[in-house]
Structure formats: C-alpha cells, structure tokens
C-alpha cells in the first residue's frame, strides 16, 4: 500500500508527548492523571506501531489522536 503522507502517523504521538511534557512542566497534571495519560500514550503507541493487525493499528492511531486533542484542549483551557 502506497502512503501519500507517511509522516502523518507520527503527528499524533509527537503532539501527545510534547503536550504531556508541557502540562507536567506547568504543573497542570497530578501524579495520578499523569500516570493515566502516560499509560494511555504508551498503550496507544504500542498498538499504533507494533500491532499485528491493521485494525489494532487504526485503534492505536485513533486513541493517540484523541489523547492529543484532549491534552491540547486541556492546555488551552489552563492558560
């Protein structure tokens, strides 16, 4: 399968990771919520990049995208 924009699969994980670091640095995340978001981030990344089936990869990408949007929304509301 030919991917037209192969770098787009990296956009959500990079955004999620950067926003996790920013929110932690700003003190907007408590330990429990930070741990939950980190587990979500790692599980979604594993599914997205290392899953054996295309459906699991799509679930990982969707989950990673939802996490990125939620963290971005939380960052904007906190500022």
Give a quick set of tags describing it.
mainly alpha; globular
List the helices and strands and how they pair.
Elements: H1 11-26, H2 31-50, H3 54-78
Model description:
- The longest helix has 25 residues, at 54-78.
- The protein is built from 3 helices and no strands.
- The protein has helices at 11-26, 31-50, 54-78.
- The span between the termini is 42 Å
Strand content: under 5%
Structural class based on helices, strands and sheet pairing: mainly alpha
Mean pLDDT: 91
Uncertain segments are none
Sketch the topology as an H/E string, one letter per element. Answer: HHH
Work out the radius of gyration.
Answer: 13 Å
Count of extended strands: 0
**Major β-sheet annotation:** none
How would you describe the shape?
Answer: globular
**How much helix is in the residues?**
over 70%
Gist?
By secondary structure, this protein is an all-alpha fold.
């Amino acid at each position: 399968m030919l991917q037209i924009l192969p770098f787009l699969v990296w956009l959500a994980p990079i955004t999620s990771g950067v926003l996790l670091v920013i929110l932690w640095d700003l003190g907007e995340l408590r330990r429990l919520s930070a741990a939950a978001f980190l587990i979500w981030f790692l599980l979604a990344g594993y599914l997205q990049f290392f899953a054996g089936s295309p459906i699991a990869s799509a679930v990982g990408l969707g989950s990673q995208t939802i996490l990125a949007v939620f963290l971005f929304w939380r960052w904007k509301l906190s500022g």
